[in-house]
Amino acid sequence: MRTLDPLLQDFRLKHLTLRNRVVSTSHEPAYGEDGMPKDRYRLYHLEKARGGVGLTMIGGSAVVSPDSPPSFGNLLLYRDDIVPWLRRLSDDVHEAGAAVMCQVTHLGRRTSNFTGDWLPLVYPSRLREPAHRAFPKVAEPWDLDRIVADFRDAALRCRDGGLDGIELMAYGHLFDAFHSPATNHRSDELGGTLERRMAFPRRVIQEIRAAVGPDFIIGIRMSMEEDLAGGLGREEALELLRHYVHDGIDFLSVIKGNIDSDAHLAAVIPSMGTPAAPFLEFTGELKRALDIPVMHAARIQDVATARYAVREGLLDLVGMTRPQLADPHLVRKLAAGEEDRIRPCVGANYCLDAIYDSGDAKCIHNPATGREQTLPHTIERSPRPRRKTVVVGAGPAGLEAARVLGERGHQVVVFEAADAPGGQIRLAASSPRRADLIGIVDWRVTEAKHSGVDFRYGTLAGTKEVLAEEPDLVVVATGGTPDRSFLTAGQELVMDTWDVMDGSFRTHGDVLVYDDNGTEQAMDATELLATRGARVELVTPERQLAPGVGSMNSPAYLAAFTEHDVTITLAYRLTAVTRGADGRPVAHLVSDYADHPLERHVDQVVVEHGTLPNDDLYFELLPGSSNLGEVDHEALLAGSPQTVNRNAAGSYQLFRIGDAVNSRNIHAAIYDALRLCTAT
Ligand SMILES: Cc1cc2nc3c(=O)[nH]c(=O)nc-3n(C[C@H](O)[C@H](O)[C@H](O)COP(=O)(O)O)c2cc1C
Ligand code: SF4
Hints:
By secondary structure, the chain is α/β, with parallel strands linked by helices.
């Protein structure tokens, strides 16, 4: 049946017909192994191809030279042994109906001098990049000669690997550093006028085009307005592009802005709490000025916005990159009329921050992404008999357990003490800037209802309520409560970050927020307090602020803290709180680095020290269980059913997941649930 949906219309890109307008734009999830796109990498892209994407771009910032060492797991296009891996990937993706290209780059200064082969980094000028802190050397003619050849050889490897094309990365790396007046301060024949600044980039394009021939597609992902003092403006960018098209560029992927600092990068890849599709109108204006295909991605999160962009002719190909990290089956669901079942990208940017925090990209609420080797994106019905299951708690862990067990075909009852689902996510989403987090909850509740899960809110389930259901399986996902036990005195004198987020805290005067967790909780509370008029001092025993909050999420907090004059104190530990002569709390601080303790007389002390598990119910249920709570880790990791039997008299299996086990995060809670329940 033909569809009239503009998103599902095919598109001709040179000789290539894309089956629809939806693209996964270049991004490096750090799934490569030894710099190669091996099975994990291939399956990640194959999932999207099976999920209906028109074009998937691999190799975000794949590097062409050894003096462009990986800064976050980039693919090594300078090695010949990459070709067979590319070939396997492209064959599979093609067979699933999608096209595939690779982004190709030399990182210039946007990496480290102290990694890979430890070759000195090169750049047009000796300018340090704030985000990666490297001091580059000024590129010499012989550097540029070999880098041009490296670009050519990398493009040939992509072609030989069966890819449909490549995309040159032209924002924040070496290629564009030459054409931007902000970064090219040279006084030789490669600096100064526009013509001179474009000489090196033009050489690169010409060399590649001459080598790959006319049929191989070459695109460019370029900042068309750098929003940088002395940077590239729109008219100059268009002028450059006209030359690049003349030299062999086939399409433009539009970027607006620059990525030289965390703040600027966060603006280019906008997160929750920022306007949707901020550069769409800008893209439309460029499209009207150009006669090559135009692609663009930046927080086009939902199908309606993507459809509008194509229908109004603001672009030809719409990037929905994080949306397909969250749901690689986005296009398939759209085509099947199941738009409402698409797992939403909530814009948490955990995917990006996780690369630096835990080594590779992870979607905050889709643990199967990047784990296609072991976890399914589509839950199949269980081949085993239907079981009566009780899930206690409707936070992220409990909701995921309910969703998955329901899809497996089991009968599921969920008890939740509160009158609404969400647990700690509901608290976090009370920050106006992070309200979209609630999408994680809403999607799961809707999905669980599809499979008939019975939610019982306002029910504080004890052993009696659970056993009354005569369950075969009980999953305890009761979460945790804030931990104040680290204080040697004054637990009753402090508030915790939950009190701030749930609104039970009256904001006034001087507030000391103590963060010994290092993640979003204390940052959220501080932001909320400061914006409501409190004078806040944020104290941490760490040597940096919130080490668990990455470069994509920090900028918004830091902007709020700077605007509201939040004081940051590093390397001090809160040990106790007493009451001062004026009745106000006194915070007692010590440092591992100094012998002089500090006292802070404030109106309120707020603490964040993770949670203590709510595990009473679990331990009460333990004696009646067949497995006595034991998890067979080997089976869990292999995706096999749990079969431990330690108690012949036990009448049900018992497991606990999420913060009911120990204080962790949303991703960990959902991952616990998915891998346990998908094998049940
Ligand atoms: C994990 C991750 C890694 C990324 N790496 C790159 C990269 O190497 N090169 C690039 O041009 N863009 C990169 N991006 C940006 C994406 O291509 C895209 O522009 C961005 O996610 C905004 O589009 P979206 O809102 O559809 O996600 C990355 C994005 C993510 C989520
Ligand atoms: S982590 Fe957040 S921003 Fe990234 S894909 Fe998942 S929902 Fe989207």
